[in-house]
Amino acid sequence: MAGMSLTDQEVADLVGLALRAVAAGDEDGRWQVVTHLHGEGGQPALDAARELCGHEQAAHRELGADILSQVGGSKGPLRYAAVRALLDTARDEQDPAVLRAIAVALGHRADARAIPVFARLRSHPAAEVRDAVAFGLLDLPERAANDILIALSADPESGVRHWATFGLARMTDADFPELRDALAARAGDADLDTRVEAIHGLATRRDPRALPALLDSLTVLDAADGDVDGNLVDEALFVLVASTGDPRLCPHVEARRVAWLADCPYEELPTDLRAAMARCAAVSPAG
Q1: Which Pfam family, giving just one, matches this sequence (predicted)?
Q2: CATH architecture of the domain with residue range 1-18+31-140
């Protein structure tokens, strides 16, 4: 039976099990069923999800969207029909939880047909919806998707700003003035995760605004070790040392050299750290 879809009755039984889990508040149990339907449900699960999306109860529609998100694989042969069903459901949907599920599902499908839906929902009053929109745009390379992320990068909710800034900084190779300006606007963000993403995105694009932003932030970012992605901080630091040779960065490179050498020999130091050390030695031989 390997590789074969579940029968209509098996899917119906599983949908019933998922709905009972919803009623019991068992989110883990609900997602176990959804994940099983993603992998084994095939066309019967797609059909059941479409029916759920037309139900009067929001919990049924949310379940339908979650099933549609990856049934048959996110890029599999059911993708076109699943996206069409999600777009149809989004047209008149008002419930924030369902809209969140639709946006996340469309994100898994990574289909440009969803961009108008994301554009409409980017200013939704519910932060959970805007957060899902930011996630949903991460794998879409189109300029229109980046423009929505630019708008969301200034969202009042830190979680939304973080997703959007991450998308602009690391999930696209795009490089144009409005994108750089959006990153620069977040390079001093009160949310440190957002700030790190923005500085990293500017540094990898060799934007001159990355240097003062990193210099202003290194002390607080180093003090927040464990609360922010230290690898991203280090990558931005090493890129900027290589591209600018600014001696003000060298004490921070030295601190990383000392920390690494406490645990491993020189030969095992990361290549980018060794390159930054060499650059610092070149700009400040006496140091």
Answers
A1: HEAT_2
A2: Alpha Horseshoe (1.25)
